[in-house]
Amino acid sequence: MRIPPLYRKVLAIAAPSVVELVLTAMTQFVDTVMVGRLGAYAISAVGLTTQPRFIMLAVFIALNVGATALVARFKGQGDRKAAELVSAQSVILAVLASLLLTVPGILFARPMVLFMGAAPDTVDASARYFSILMAGFAPTVLPIAISALLRGVGDAKTSMRYNVTANLVNVAFNYLLIYGKFGFPALGVSGAAIATVIGNSVACAMALFAVAGRRSRKGRISYAVLRFTKDNCVPNPAMLKRIIRIGLPSAAEQFALRVGLLIYTITITALGTRVFAAHQIVLSILNLSFVNGQAFGIAATSLSGQALGRGEPDEAKAASGACQRLGAFISTAMGLGMFAFRRELILLFTSDPEIVALGAGVMLIVALIQPFQSSFQIYAGALRGAGDSLYPAISLAIGILGIRPALSYVFVHVLSLGLFGAWLALIADQFARFVLILARFKSGKWVHIKV
Q1: Fewer CB near the last or first residue (10 Å), C or N of the chain?
Q2: What's the rounded Cα separation, in Å, for the pair 228 and 356?
Q3: Alpha carbon separation from 133 to 124, 143, 186, 194 (Å, rounded)
Q4: How far are the Cα atoms of 283, 340, 349, 358, 372 from residue 420, in angstroms, in the given order?
Q5: Separation of alpha carbons 17 and 157, rounded Å
Q6: Contacts 24+ apart (CB under 8 A), 326-330
Q7: What is the CB neighbour count within 10 angstroms for residue 209?
Q8: Span of 69-73, 215-219, 286-290, 371-375 with lowest mean pLDDT
Q9: What is the pLDDT of residue 217?
Q10: What would the pLDDT profile of 25-37 be if each residue is shown by its tens digit?
Q11: pLDDT (tens digit per residue) in 94-144
């Protein structure tokens, strides 16, 4: 069967992104499995650090959204000089901001995990884990920034290569440092953090090499290239304003997301270490399922931005619609698989019967939300590619700061539905965001945004 040209374009970007994101998510998945062998306390210790770390990443995600949209638009316009300026400015900002956040992250690691509601058996391990991750924050941020530039020009293969390599390095050092194999010390949870930093450092080195004067296969200079000239290194107020104007709503979106998830996490930690361990296991599986929506969302961002740069709004809508159809088909198949093998998936992490029973029950919700989850991710990607980052931020704030915390409190503490009630609040949040993002996409107003 011959694949239509539009779908070939989508798959050319989405397929490498799927490989990259699957392996990245699988690394996190394997991390949790390997740490889980140490006990429920270790799963909880790692899980407690997730939301605070992502709150600190919100500023970088904002810069990345602005950089991706502008690079895609400049490629569509054929303006290589402007694309190079965006690349240099966004990378320099990312490095400076990461260095500013490293020291506070290390100093306040213990108060942070205590604020998150860490039980006495998880505090020390969780604080050490977070401190180590923050020591390697700069090499974590830089490859993320470079990946955003590459995806803006439709090059998902380069970032796939360095992220896949880094993930394999991470898993290998997990095995060596968590359990103490081949003469390495058995560092437990701290070993998992060190392995993550090593993997991120490998990605950082490879990413810098990839965009330092890089050329395409046909010998043409790429639009995503780092050229630290006098003009590019000096702050350019006009370009920085454009990056920030597009990215600021995404920063607010990410901050709202992480604050909402932090409140949500604190609600669940109150249920005890074993319940939170079950929650963290299911969350690892859910994060793996995000890959599909993220990959096709990346394709929608790149293709819609480039099409609008060429002055083709109908092409932007058509490409985004193709991304959503492919993503929804795959996510439905994933949901069916999660339903059928929900117990077996939890058993990969632990054999504790209480945790397995709790996790398997919640997996029913994870299976149900798959098509809605991927669709709102993809439509939001299309809006961001057009520079319409405000509307996804508003819809997320409504769901994550309003619907989910309120319903989780009612379901957990008023109706006493426990972990299952907390996840019912999650599905209500995701469905509401799907409806809001779909309405904005169907309105067509996003294709007229000026960047």
Answers
A1: N
A2: 53
A3: 14, 15, 18, 7
A4: 13, 18, 19, 8, 19
A5: 7
A6: 326/7, 326/10, 326/11, 326/14, 326/296, 327/292, 327/293, 327/295, 327/296, 327/297, 327/374, 327/375, 327/377, 327/378, 328/371, 328/374, 328/375, 330/292, 330/374
A7: 11
A8: 215-219
A9: 42
A10: 666 667 777 887 7
A11: 888 888 888 888 998 888 888 877 778 888 888 999 899 899 988 988 888
What is the Cβ-side half-sphere exposure of residue 282, based on CA atoms within 13 angstroms?
A: 29
Tokens, residue 402? 């309003």
Between helix 50-77 and helix 273-309 the angle, nearest 10°, is 10
The predicted structure's pLDDT at residue 423? 92
What pLDDT was estimated at residue 295?
A: 85
Q: Are 136 and 202 in contact (CB under 8 A)?
A: no
What pLDDT digit, counting tens, does each position of 401-428 carry?
A: 889 989 999 999 899 899 999 999 999 9
3-state secondary structure of 236: coil
pLDDT at 176 over 90: yes
Residue 218's pLDDT is 42
Bin 183: left if φ > 0, else alpha if -120 < ψ < 50, else beta.
left
Structural domain span for residue 289: 5-448
Model pLDDT for residues 183-205, shown as the tens digit of each residue: 899 998 899 899 989 999 998 99
Per-residue three-class SS string for 48-87: HCHHHHHHHHHHHHHHHHHHHHHHHHHHHHCCHHHHHHHH
Please name the helix (run of DSSP H) or strand (run of DSSP E) that holds residue 415, with its range, or none: none
Which residues, in sequence order, are CB contacts of 314 under 8 Å at separation 6+? none
Separation CA 201–CA 94 (nearest Å): 15
Q: Which residues contact 425 (CB under 8 A, 6 or more apart)?
A: 264, 403, 404, 405, 406, 407, 408, 411
Count of structural domains, the chain? 1
From CA 122, how far away is CA 114, in angstroms rounded?
10
Give the mean pLDDT of 272-279. 86
Q: Most distant CA pair in the chain: distance in Å?
A: 64
Buried b (16+ CB within 10 A) or exposed e, 37-73: ebbbbbbbbbbbbbbbbbbbbbbbbbbbbbbbbbbbb
